[in-house]
Amino acid sequence: MGILQWFVDLGATVLLPILIFIFALVLGTKPGKALRAGIIVGIGFVGINLVIGLLVDSLGPAAQSMVDNFGFNLNTIDVGWPAAAAIAYGTSLGSLAIPIGVGVNVLLLTFGLTKTLNVDIWNFWHVALTGSLVYALTADFWLGILTIIVHLLLLYLMGDILAKYIEKFYGFQNITFPHGTSAPSAFVAMPMNWVFDRIPGFNKLEANPENIQKKLGVLGDSTIIGVMIGILIGILAGYNVQGILQLSIQTGAVMVLLPRMVALLMEGLIPVSEAAGAFVKKRFPGRDLYIGMDSALAIGHPAVLSSALLLIPITIFLAVLLPGNSVLPFADLASIPFLICLMVPIFRGNIIRTVIGGSIYIGVGLYIASWVAPLFTQSAIASNFEMGTNTSISSLIDGAVWTTFIFVWLSKIFSWYGMSALGLLVLFGLIYQNKIKPNRHKANPEKSGNPAAAPIEHE
């Protein structure tokens, strides 16, 4: 366990290149090409983290100033995902999430119950958190372990389902995001989008970045939009002219730099993705293999960033206006792109739909984060997390995600029976998605047309 923990402590920027290098060699990639792919992926992640750091460093103080400027006072502080990850891995149960996650993935792949090979090992902290919360609630260690396993099964099922949406919208072939924060939001966006499609007038609004730029010219350019949103946030934060202008250039820089860092990372992943496709096609005809990655690859899209920047002030005002909410959004405001990046493909890049859908999703999420705050705080104390002067803490990531509510609520009301039933349901979903559904499609082939060009239907 100590060796594994040392390996994980290397961080994603070192751990991921090593895993990509090993994975590429297993797939038959030449050593030199595999080495370069791994290094480029690592460099890409360094670049992404630098740009996200710029986003956090610029928007964090602005968000705090906005809160102070309007005199908002809520008693539960959003400590952010880095703190949530530290809390998740800091408990005795959470530290087991990585070996369990790898083991579950290997078993599912062996029996053909998932197409997702998850190399994003560090982000197993999402399942470690839900397991730790259930453990804090029930004091039942093994129920916490079962929660981790069921959560993993659910994320692999989500990864399998979402791969086609990710490829269609983002153009990432053989890549999916079994990410504990991002994946669940897509399944909320699906019914929302069904409703939006049936609202007269609203269903005709085309508000993706391409159409906006076409209609507004230079003012519709994603960089200019980023600058204008930065100006708006600076004004709401009460900044002076100098501060507003600095923030606007910083948000504009994020809009330009983040997609380029993602493109660099994809340069390293493309040869590995192609090798994975060829490997599976040769040895397992009829099966696909998706590389499970961090959804950081998706947040650089202009529709994601534009929507997320607009949602920052909306989230702060929702926190104050919603009766019964106790969470003050703060540290995770700059992480809102992770909350919505897989809603965007479902909404076909429509910024208006994403902002409205994201507002509803985050609004409900604030209630979840408030509800789970006592358990979150208890888990933080158990992991020796430094609370400072705070007596109640929570997080938008993953405190405001519906899967957190489901796992904790089921454990609270139905204990082992509820979690076991959910596990069986998800397992059946994996069997249907990877065994029954492919066989059914083979038995009922399309009569005509190119299946690749057919529109994607919602699951």
From TrEMBL:
Xref: Pfam families: EIIC-GAT
Region of interest (Disordered), ranges: 440-459
Location in or out of the cell: Cell membrane
Top-level taxon of origin: Bacteria
Annotated GO MF terms: galactitol transmembrane transporter activity
Residue stretches making up the PTS EIIC type-2 domain: 4-440
Membrane topology classification: Multi-pass membrane protein
Keywords for the protein's UniProt record, in alphabetical order: Cell membrane, Membrane, Phosphotransferase system, Sugar transport, Transmembrane, Transmembrane helix, Transport
Gene Ontology cellular-component annotations: plasma membrane
Bilayer-crossing regions: 6-27, 39-63, 83-109, 121-137, 143-163, 223-241, 261-280, 301-321, 327-347, 359-381, 401-432
Keyword Transferase: no
Protein name: Galactitol permease IIC component
Species per Swiss-Prot/TrEMBL record: Planococcus massiliensis
